[in-house]
Structures are given as C-alpha cells and as structure tokens.
Design goal:
Distance between the termini: 17 Å
Shape: elongated
Number of helices: 20
Strand content: 15-25%
Largest sheet: 7 strands, mixed
Strand order of the largest sheet: 13-12-11-10-9-8-15
Length: 654
C-alpha cells in the first residue's frame, strides 16, 4: 500500500448451479490464492454462492439457508486476513428476497449490499425472484448460521479505510451500472474511490467491447478505480452463455482484463493517491461532505441511506504487477500512435493557421537547424500554409551556421527546405558573434555559457529582424521537455511569436517526425527526415572537430536522457507524485536500462532544474495546449519563480 497502491482482484470461480458446498469451496480456494498474492480487495460474481441461473430454485428455503451457511463459512476463513471480500448471494429481508453482495472482512460478514436495478427484459427475469432496493434497511441475523458476534445490516454502504483515507469502497451489482443513472454515481458522490461490481453478464456478439467501454468510461467519469467481476463457466447454459469477463480499470485506463471463457483471478494495483490527486484538481468534482444526495429519480439513494463503515488494512509495500510505460506520452499500439501523431499535427497546424490569419502575416519565419524540434515546427508551418491555401514560399526558413554547426545538420536543413519548397536563407552568424565577443570583452577560447548563449541570442535577433523585413512572424521550435528543464537560452531560442511545440515532449517529437516521414510521398523528404531522426540531439553551440563533421556537444550527455526526464515530467508534474514515488516507478519501468544511481542522479537534476528555471516558463510565448501536460503560465501550470526545491530533493533520498 506504499505510495497509494492497493492490490485488487476480480475472481471468477468454477461453480455448479445450486451446489453451494462446491461453490463455497471454489471461492475459498481462490481467496487463498488472493491472499498469497497480497490482494487487499477481492470481488466475486453476482449470486456466485448459489449460481446466477438458479431460476425458481431461488424460491426454495433449502437453497437460501444453505447460501447463508456458505457466506458465514467463507467469512470464517478470512478471520486471520485483512482482505475486504465481496461475494454474491440471495438474501431474505423484509419479507422479500434481495440480490446482494455480502461484504466480508476479518472473519465476519460486515454488510449486505442490495441490488437496485433489476433487469426484466429479453433473457433476464430477475424481478420474478428478487425485490429492487428502494432504501429500506434490515438487520440480517446470522446467528443460526454460525456468525455470533455481529449482525450485519442490509443497506447501501461505502467502506472507508482507516489507514488510507483515499480508499473508499462502494458496491453495485451488474445492471446497476448499465442503467441511465448508475448507482456508482451516488457512491462516488459519497466519497467512493473504488467501485466493485458483482456481475453475471451473459455473452452475446459484441457485448464484450461494449462492456469494456462501459467500465472504462464509468471509471473515467467518476475518477475512480473499478473492478468488474462477471460469472463464467459453470452457470447454466440452458438459455445463456457466461464468459467470465473480468475488468480492472483506473480513471479510464484498463489495467487488467481476463480472456473470455477462462475462469480465474484477474489482479492489478490501483493507485488511490493518484485518483485523490485528480479529484482534488478537478474543481467541478463534488466534495462528498457537501453533496446533496437527494434526487427526483433516485430519492432513496440519499445521505441517510448511504452509510459509512470503517475497515482496517495492514500497511505494507504492494508488489507491482501493472505496467508503467517508459514513454507515457506515446501510445504503445502502432495504429493508435499513428492516429495520435496525425491528430497532434492537425492541432498544431490549426493553431498556427489561426495565428497567421489573425496577425495578417505575409510570411512565417523559422530558424532551421537540421534538428528534430525545428524540423517538426517547419512541417507544422507547411501544413498551416496548406490549410490557408497559401504557397510554401511564404515560409522563410533561416539556417544560421556558427562555430558548432556540423556539415550533416547544415546539409539536412537545406535538403529539407528544398524538399518542402519553402524559401531558404542562410545567415552565417560567426562574424556577428565574434564582434559581439569583442564588444563585451569575452575571450573566444572561453567556452562558458556566454559563448553558447551569445550564439543563441544572435540567432533570435536575426529571426526577429528578418520577420520585420518580410512582414512575418517568428515561429518557435522549443519543446515541452526543454521547457521543463529550462534547456533554452533566455530571450534566445526561448523567445518567439508563437510556439508550436511548447506542449510536445521530446520523446513524442521524435515519433511525430517519424510518422510524417513514414506517410509522406516524397522519397527525398522521407530520406532526410530519417537522417534527422538518426542525428544526436544537440544545440551545436560548441565548436565541432577539425573536420566539421563531429559534434562535441550532445544534450543528453549534459542534462540526461530525455526518456527519463519525460517520465519524471509525466508522473512528477502531471500526477503530482512524490519524488520518492517517481523514483520507485522509474526503477520499476526502466529496470535493466539504467542503474539505480543513474536514475537518482537525473531525477535530482530534473527537480533542481525544474524549480530553478521557472522564470523562463513564466513569460512563454503563446502556443496551443496539445496534450494533458503543459507548462504555460496561462494554462495548466502556475508556479512562483523563486520556489525552493529542497523538500522535493530531500524526498528523493528517503
């Protein structure tokens, strides 16, 4: 449970219809496996103690009594465990029969949660046997079945974890999710961060896809974890087939999913601190203490009928089995990745198109270095001009070689511009920079920050003045990763009139350029894009070797691997994880790629630079938000430039 992770399970046991002893033994067997795996919340299917498909056997007292005995037997096997367990069982109360989830922990049945919405259409006839829950309560006396210490209530309840207040567990049963106003809506408003659904959803063609989308979307809408557990093999096949489709989701993401028609246990870990962070961040998410639960449609689900019970879990570190992508900004699926890259290019180009049209710019001016960022920005400029139905010659691409420019990048810049049909200009800034060094009394052989930034600011001056010449606007090329690290010269490449890459992390820039190269029709353009992709990332501000072909300055040697920094940015800034948690996930995700001490080193570099370089982000040029992470001071990120990083750096060394 360290860092907010809780291991959860959806369990589909083999059953035999109406054979309670057989079913209970199979449930207990799966509970033992869950305990071995460190599971803290385990969910079983709807009516799994008897079987969902008992039909009119549900009217038989013998079956109902045996079911209660089975619940108590299961509960007793949990006496030495802190696992919170939910199993489906029919319950007699108030002269009616209810379809319930029995919530079990620590050797006792803690509560029975009744089903609210009963399907009575097509293949479903639940209203023939069960009563729908409408807010009534009852005390279920289990003494004759062997539970002596506690009489559990039958009512809608959420369970609040004493050790982890972010973990609040609510329960709904099958159809309660499929209706227009799901019960889980009310549970979430009452504070539930984990919804457990005990289901017996039969399988028909296409239903698995809809079910997956339904669970994913509901977890996203509620900003919650969701365990969907369904009946499988063993249910009667007289009129239906059950596939045991189990799904574990977190805020819209499917963490784990069973294969259809394979009974078993599906396990993953849900991050409840992450969910709590997102709920706090979303200002429209209702505070549970302030919510008015009354509703014209579901008035029985009011504040008096959603009770709160406390439960306790033993604290410890949760072993992780879920995957954490090394590149969280990039979809792992090729088709999805291509679709994402296409959409990003559309968003970037439409944003620039609007700015060009609004400013009545006759041209756009861009510095082109032969590197990745300026290449992507140039491609966006071309697409924007296409949208405006204007010639590519209205793009003025300026290459400004100086002391560190290699023959390879200089050549690639020209080939790229020629292939795209843009106006190409070369302005060698060497003499101007040398004159500037002389003017301020700086020794050329002193390759300090003055040497580097003098070139970067000279380039920006050239671009701005050319833009004045050609009635244009300067398009910035810097990306999100550089902004996070402050890897930009203040009032140099830091400045432009519109920054098209400001919301694109470096790892994603590479894939977008790759996608453009893969889908373009020009062999020349494709070849030069591929060569640019193979070129090391460098600002080229230190002199090359004598041949002019080898770089002496590579960015990732200086500030660290961008794949690490983008990982830190996503989890540390987007999700607000503590640095120690970011470190744990990085070591888990990059195991075998980087030694632990290397991850520690670059994580400290990330936080140190992120804090110290905020002043550069406080005055960023305009640029459209593209993804879920942006550092614009007018958008998602507001931070004082003189904030101190001490707390974050100390946390890394915990």
């Amino acid at each position: 449970m360290k860092d907010g992770f809780i291991k959860v399970a959806a369990c589909t046991p083999e059953i035999q219809v109406a054979d309670v002893d057989f079913n209970v033994d199979k449930i207990i067997s799966q509970l033992e496996k869950c305990r071995e795996e460190g599971v803290k919340v385990a969910v079983f299917p709807e009516l799994c103690i008897t079987g969902y498909t008992c039909q009119d056997l549900f009217f038989q007292n013998a079956l109902l009594d045996k079911a209660m005995e089975g619940v108590v037997k299961i509960a007793k096997t949990t006496a030495d465990s802190d696992m919170l367990v939910a199993v489906g069982v029919p319950v007699r109360a108030n002269g009616k029969l209810y379809n319930c989830a029995a919530v079990i922990q620590g050797g006792e049945v803690r509560a029975f949660i009744p089903k609210t919405h009963l399907p009575n259409y097509n293949e479903f006839y639940e209203a023939r046997h069960f009563a729908p829950y409408r807010g009534e309560c009852a005390a279920i006396d289990l003494r004759e079945y062997g539970q002596l210490e506690f009489i559990p209530p039958m009512e809608q309840t959420v369970f609040v974890c004493e050790e982890i207040p972010e973990l609040v567990v609510g329960f709904e049963l099958c159809e309660d999710l499929w209706v227009a106003d799901p019960v889980s809506n009310y549970l979430a408003k009452a504070g539930a961060t984990l919804i457990c659904n005990l289901s017996a959803s039969d399988e028909v063609i296409g239903k698995d896809s809809y079910r997956r989308q339904l669970v994913s979307n509901q977890s996203a809408r509620l900003v919650a974890g969701y365990i969907y557990c369904s009946a499988g093999d063993g249910e009667s096949t007289q009129d239906m087939v059950f596939s045991g489709h189990n799904i574990i989701a977190e805020n819209g993401s499917i963490l784990a999913e069973s294969r259809l028609f394979e009974n078993g246990i599906t396990i993953s870990e849900i991050d409840f601190k992450k969910l709590a962070f997102e709920r706090r961040k979303i200002s429209t998410y209702p505070a549970s203490a302030e919510w008015d639960y009354s509703s014209k449609d579901s008035g029985f689900l009011d504040k008096d009928n959603i009770s709160r019970e406390r439960f306790s879990l033993e604290m410890g570190e949760t072993a992780l089995t879920r995957k954490f992508a090394k590149t969280p900004f990039i979809p792992s699926n090729q088709a999805e990745r291509n679709e994402r890259c296409h959409l990003i290019l559309q968003m970037q180009s439409h944003g620039l198109m609007k700015r060009i049209a609004h400013t009545h710019s006759k041209t756009v001016v861009i510095g082109i270095s032969g590197g990745l960022d300026s290449t992507l920005a140039l491609l966006v400029c071309v697409m924007a001009m296409d949208l405006l139905k204007r010639p590519h010659m209205d793009i003025v691409a300026v290459t400004m070689p100086c002391f560190g420019t290699t023959k390879r990048t200089r050549s690639n810049a020209e080939i790229l511009c020629d292939a795209l049909g843009v106006t190409f200009r070369e302005v060698d800034i060497s003499k101007a920079v040398l004159q500037h060094f002389e003017d301020i009394g700086h020794d050329y052989n002193d390759h300090s920050v003055v040497f580097e930034n003098g070139q970067a600011r000279e380039r920006t001056k050239v671009l701005m003045n050319i833009a004045n010449q050609v009635s244009g606007m300067v398009v910035g090329t810097g990306d999100l990763s550089e902004l996070a690290l402050g890897w930009a010269t203040y009032n140099g490449d830091h400045m432009s009139m519109y920054g098209v890459n400001a919301s694109i992390p470096k790892t994603l820039v590479r894939h977008i350029v790759q996608y453009y190269g893969d889908t373009c029709t020009s062999d020349t353009l494709r070849d030069v894009l591929y060569d640019i992709l193979d070129t090391p990332v460098s600002p080229e501000l230190l002199p090359t070797d004598e041949s002019g072909t080898e770089m002496t300055q590579k960015t990732e040697d200086l500030v660290g691997p961008y794949e690490l920094h983008d990982f830190f940015l996503y989890y540390g800034i987007r999700w607000g994880f503590e640095p120690s948690k970011v470190k744990r996930l990085a070591k888990y995700a990059f195991e075998g790629d980087y030694p632990d001490e290397v991850i520690d080193k670059w994580l400290k570099t990330f936080y140190r630079r992120f804090f110290s370089q905020q002043f550069k982000r406080s005055c960023l040029p305009d640029g459209a938000k593209i993804g879920s992470v942006t550092l614009s001071p007018r958008g998602d990120w507001r931070m004082p430039s003189d904030a101190v990083a001490k707390l974050w750096l100390e946390d890394i060394d915990k």
